[in-house]
Design a protein that fits this description.
Pfam families: ECH_1. This protein is of the alpha/beta class. Helix content is about 45%, strand content about 15%. The protein is built from eleven helices and eleven strands.
Length: about 280
């Protein structure tokens, strides 16, 4: 059972049934935080309020050492439909035709995606239904992903004259270039099996099992040394942007620091002594 629950809503609107009141719900399952996009009537679109709620949620999680893994899920038949196009279109009447708003919106969205990557805890997407455009970007930004067999993914901006350039960043760092380009150039839907084949998700499960399976996986990760996981996640993303020699030098530096941690000493001693380690997260 969850230990605690909390909700983040548009402060201007308390009615959670309102289409303009996106909600991010959090439930803590022992050492795992379940973060749920809870605006199904609006397809969990990344509106201004939704992005603000996600940013606040991830900012809080980054400071919580008690939480050792995060599962990101969504209510309703759509995981996330990407940006709220109606909200964006409303800014066409701005004096600059929305240019400043669009730049700010995309910057805030990029910050949320990077917050997922920069969280010290691993983040597992539990994907039901469809994840399109920036919604697909959100899945690709997570460290791991488990998808329901009925899940589908696409970057369909090209169909409306708007190439999915920002989703491309996360997508192209998860799948091979030709697979990424095929999705970006055609806008075609990719089913869950194909998403697993090309590396966008880790595993496909029966519909309704994606969230429980993600929670089980998160708890397995939460049982590891948190200090080792923090070192490893940060290093994973940093090293792959470096040339090979630099990557090895950086990884060796990180591993040396990790070796000096109390948990590494305890883990090695436990392995040699054939006993279960007791983590101190130091």
């Amino acid at each position: 059972m969850p230990l605690t629950t909390s909700a983040f809503t548009d402060p201007a609107l308390a009615n959670r049934t309102s289409a303009s009141a996106p909600i991010v719900r959090r439930e803590d399952h022992d050492r795992v935080a379940l973060v749920v996009l809870d605006r199904p009537k609006s397809r969990n679109a990344l509106s201004d309020a939704m992005l603000a709620a996600l940013a606040e949620t991830f900012s809080g999680l980054a400071e919580e050492r008690r939480i050792r893994a995060v599962v990101l899920a969504a209510e309703g038949p759509v995981f996330c439909a990407g940006h709220d196009l109606k909200e964006m279109t409303a800014h066409r009447t701005d004096p600059d035709r929305g240019r400043a708003y669009f730049a700010d919106l995309l910057g805030r969205c990029a910050a949320v995606m990077q917050a997922v990557v920069n969280l010290p805890q691993p983040v597992i997407a539990a994907v039901n239904g469809t994840a399109t455009a920036a919604g697909c970007q959100l899945v690709a930004s997570c460290d791991l992903a488990i998808a329901a067999a009925n899940a589908r993914f696409c970057t369909p901006g090209v169909d409306i004259g708007l190439f999915c350039s920002t989703p491309m960043v996360a997508l192209s760092r998860n799948v091979a270039p030709k697979h990424a380009m095929a999705m970006l150039l055609t806008g075609d839907m990719v089913d869950a099996a194909e998403a697993a084949r090309i590396g966008l998700v880790n595993r496909v499960v029966e519909p309704g099992r994606e969230r429980p399976e993600a929670l089980v996986l998160a708890e397995r990760i939460a049982a590891k040394s948190a200090v080792a996981i923090r070192h490893g996640k940060r290093a994973f993303y940093r090293q792959r942007e470096l040339p090979l020699a630099d990557a090895y030098h950086y990884a060796a530096t990180v591993m040396t620091e990790n070796m000096m941690a109390r948990d590494a000493e305890e883990g090695i001693d436990a392995f040699i002594g054939k006993r279960r380690p007791t983590w101190e997260d130091q």
